[in-house]
Design a protein that fits this description.
The protein has 283 residues and is α+β, with helices and mostly antiparallel strands. The protein contains three helices and 15 strands. 26% of the residues are buried.
């Protein structure tokens, strides 16, 4: 066993067998998550998990949420955090790296819920936004200088830029139905929603030393304080996330920088592929 600051690693001397390993520990010392450093489970690293800081202007209260994915019908734990004009949903358990980026300044008008009834129209709206975002990102890359670097992701301790929690609570709910041919293993989803935003689901998986990354634009749907969802338009699937109601002790990050460093460790754990540019993080 190797013990370091905010983490410890366990190496098994017998590598000719595999056993089930715990994926989450909870105790008086706080909340700890496991990250598999290798494809074989002879070396496990457990890292301390901090919950995201909260700001009054956040769209909803950040924290841990549980979603059920299509693959193997497994329930996964993800963390919602806010970073200025973006929100982020990061899967914190498992081999693959799944990160959903929500653009809080690119709201999609609900049109009394009618937009969900026309999949082609919804896809057209998202595609137009995605093309605009891609052009802007390319332009930013071309214009990037040493002076301009570091102005992308804000610390979670800073106010959100875009819609606020007060605005979300004042929005009148509109009917929500899954668009035709969109699959979901969760049928008990809310039938009304309050807001929608453009978002991108980034999935990075490493197999046998080769990394693959998929960028999947879609729609982030805010149902209420405790539920949100995402429609991936290319793969035509819907994921519902519900807030984890358990309470944890000793999970506050000592500083915003410590929380962002934890996110960086999740995103760039050994064997994982890079999705977000963490050199853009600001504090």
């Amino acid at each position: 066993m190797q013990i370091r600051k905010d983490r410890f690693s366990i190496q098994c001397s017998k590598t000719d067998h595999r056993t089930d390993s715990p994926t989450r520990l909870r105790g008086e010392g706080g909340l700890v998550l496991v990250q598999e450093d290798r494809q074989v489970y002879d070396w496990l690293t457990y890292r301390r998990l901090y919950l995201p800081p909260r700001h009054p202007d956040d769209l909803i209260r950040p924290g841990l949420f549980q979603g059920k994915y299509q693959s193997f019908r497994l329930k996964k734990i993800a963390m919602l955090s806010f970073h200025g004009k973006y929100a982020r949903v990061t899967k914190i358990m498992g081999e693959s790296i799944v990160m959903l980026e929500i653009h809080l300044q690119r709201r999609i008008q609900l049109r009394d819920g009618e937009i969900f009834r026309n999949f082609n129209e919804l896809s057209r709206v998202v595609q137009e936004i995605d093309e605009q975002v891609t052009r802007e990102q390319q332009q930013q890359q071309e214009n990037r200088t040493e002076e301009s670097e570091g102005h992308g992701w804000q610390s979670p301790a800073q106010p959100s830029v875009g819609e606020s929690g007060a605005a979300a609570s004042e929005e009148q709910p509109v009917p929500f139905v899954l668009p035709a041919n969109v699959l979901s293993i969760e049928q008990n989803y809310p039938r009304t929603c309050r807001m929608c935003f453009y978002g991108v689901d980034t999935v990075s998986v490493t197999r046998h030393g080769f990394a693959s990354t998929w960028r999947l634009p879609g729609v982030f749907i805010l149902f209420d304080e405790n539920h949100f969802g995402f429609i991936c338009l290319e793969l035509k699937y819907f994921i519902l996330f519900g807030r984890v109601q358990d309470t944890f002790q000793n999970v506050e990050a000592p500083s915003p920088q410590a929380f962002l460093e934890m996110l960086k460790n999740i995103q760039f754990r050994p064997g994982g592929a890079a999705g977000m540019h963490f050199e853009d993080l600001t504090f």
